[in-house]
Amino acid sequence: GESVGLHLPTLSVQEGDNSIINCAYSNSASDYFIWYKQESGKGPQFIIDIRSNMDKRQGQRVTVLLNKTVKHLSLQIAATQPGDSAVYFCAENLGGATNKLIFGTGTLLAVQP
Amino acid sequence: NAGVTQTPKFQVLKTGQSMTLQCAQDMNHEYMSWYRQDPGMGLRLIHYSVGAGITDQGEVPNGYNVSRSTTEDFPLRLLSAAPSQTSVYFCASSYGGGNTGELFFGEGSRLTVL
Fold this sequence. Notes:
- The complex is a heterodimer.
- Chain A is built from no helices and ten strands.
- By secondary structure, chain A is an all-beta fold.
- In chain A, the strands form two sheets. In chain A, strands 1, 3, 4, 8, 9 and 10 form a six-stranded mixed β-sheet that branches.
- In chain B, strands 2, 4, 5, 6, 9, 10 and 11 form a seven-stranded mixed β-sheet that branches.
- The relative contact order of chain B is 0.33.
- The A-B interface holds A 2-4, 6-8, 31-34, 36, 41-46, 49, 51, 89, 91, 93, 95-106 and B 4, 31, 33, 35, 37, 39-45, 48, 50, 56, 58-59, 88, 90, 92, 94, 97-108, 110.
């Protein structure tokens, strides 16, 4: 598969633990944020999103937190499983009439059994 | 439901050759885009389209051309390939309108330029 994990920050967790993946975004005008998961050899897959008028949003086993003051986004994964092993990207939508997403560099999550 | 389909999955070119990466989606999405992914650099937007007949440049458009003659198809053309264009290319689509980020990605096309 594609070695997208090379040179990426890596978070190593034990199976069953909670994972927290962090992301700093760049544009104060961004009003929509998304987390994507990319497994080896595959395209990115949508996980969860959050709008700038919220500071927290929960999904199934995942929670996204947004701190606009310091332009910081985090993804929390509860009870991490081996299937969660992947590269995780945050992305910001610069707003306006397009879906012009700008992606972060990604974090490799390695789940140890 | 096929979603976003990219062809070819793998391609090797020599410097100076031209080629087209194909992208098709069957979800009637208005928005389509091309990203390239390089190790340690995440995904960078090359070109995008908000509808048939409309295209615009992203972060790294140089060396690439696109067109959008139909809603379904959004081909990416390399007119004269360079080694710096060695990368994995992803096509993505989504519903139209602003402030929505759920892009549906294809499986990727891995291009090597020698």
